[in-house]
């Protein structure tokens, strides 16, 4: 995650927080799920698939205590809640949390809290820490180290994040004026899977698996969705081609001992 090297770390973090709060205000006003691409017919299918991957990667059940990082409007909170788990969902944006709190999760199952994750104090440890498209907004080493600290021994992290090797993502993450035109926040990036896997292992995670997936663009016209899905599923298993998929599913475990 790029930082301003002319600022001390606390000032740089404060600037990032200010940027994300302002970005959340923009998203809430513009229709966050439209901007993110989750509201279109193809986008809804992508979201459902992503939510299932996050839920299953975290090995959730009704007794799980889960921390969701960067819950946004709560679209994936609802999907994680299908496991029956108890969820502490944090986000830095009060505007996005206002949307999330209107969702129909069971009373007492989800607690929404307005906090920036990197310097937040939360009541752990957790059986799982999960999230969708949030780590690429954070200092990746600091945030994954904190996730490791917050997990119980044997606990899982499960996230889906943008893949830097996807040509479209590489353009919007590295050419900032294009990213701004498409609704990006100033500090976000994307990940290369083997570099991220090395980082997670160096922090102390085991059973690290970073898997590329997703060739279904949210703008896919409804009549084309079955064909594009079928071609995409084939591309996901082809060596080389799979590396340019749109997303990464990141799963890792804190050792038992």
Describe the structure.
This protein has 257 residues and is of the alpha/beta class. The protein has a single domain, classed as 3-Layer(aba) Sandwich (Rossmann fold). The protein contains ten helices and seven strands. Strands 3-2-1-4-5-7-6 form a seven-stranded mixed sheet, with helices on both faces. Strand 4, helix 6 and strand 5 form a beta-alpha-beta unit. The N terminus is likely disordered.
In short:
With 257 residues, the protein is an alpha/beta fold. The protein is built from 10 helices and 7 strands.
Q: State mean pLDDT (0 to 100 scale).
A: 93
How many domains? 1
What is the approximate shape? globular
Order of helices and strands: HHHEHEHEEHEHHHEHE
Provide the CATH top-level class.
Alpha Beta
Query: Rounded to an integer, what's the Rg over CA atoms?
Result: 17 Å
Which bin fits the share of residues in helices? 40-55%
Our measurement of the CA-to-CA distance between the termini, rounded to an integer number of angstroms, reads: 31 Å
| Range of strand content | 15-25%
Q: Say what the CATH topology is.
A: Rossmann fold
Task: Tell me the strand order in the biggest sheet.
Answer: 3-2-1-4-5-7-6
Largest sheet: 7 strands, mixed
